[in-house]
Write a structure and sequence with these properties.
12 strands, mainly beta, about 100 residues, three-stranded antiparallel beta sheet, globular, 1 helix, single chain
Length: about 100
C-alpha cells in the first residue's frame, strides 16, 4: 500500500524506511535486539511461551496462552520470531506476545 508495508496475517502497517533511533542504533552495533512482553532479551535458540490467545488465519482454533515454543530464531521485521508452534507448524510471531521461559 503506497509506501507502507502490510502484514497479510494481522493487517499491521509500517513504514520500512522509518527507524526508531535508539533501537536502530542498538541493532546496528550488536545485531538484532528483541525483547519479550516483559522486557527480557531474546536470543536464537531460546524457549518462549505465548502470553495471549492468538487467532491464526486458516485455522479454526487459536494458539492458546501458555503454549511453549522451543528453539526460536530472531529475524528482522515486525514479526521478529520464526519458530515451529506445536499443532500449527512453522510461523512468525511478534515478540510482544511471548515471554521467555
Amino acid at each position: 500500500m503506497d509506501h507502507l508495508m502490510v502484514c497479510p496475517e494481522c493487517a499491521h502497517e509500517w513504514n520500512p524506511a522509518e527507524a526508531d533511533g535508539e533501537d536502530a542504533a542498538a541493532a546496528a552495533s550488536s545485531g538484532l535486539v528483541v525483547k519479550d512482553a516483559h522486557g527480557n532479551l531474546l536470543q536464537d535458540g531460546d524457549s518462549v511461551s505465548i502470553v495471549k490467545d492468538l487467532p491464526v488465519k486458516g485455522f479454526s482454533k487459536a494458539i492458546k496462552v501458555g503454549t511453549k515454543v522451543t528453539n526460536i530464531r530472531i529475524v528482522e521485521g515486525d514479526h521478529n520470531i520464526d519458530c515451529k508452534v506445536p499443532g500449527f507448524g512453522a510461523m512468525a510471531l511478534k515478540s510482544e506476545f511471548v515471554k521467555k521461559v
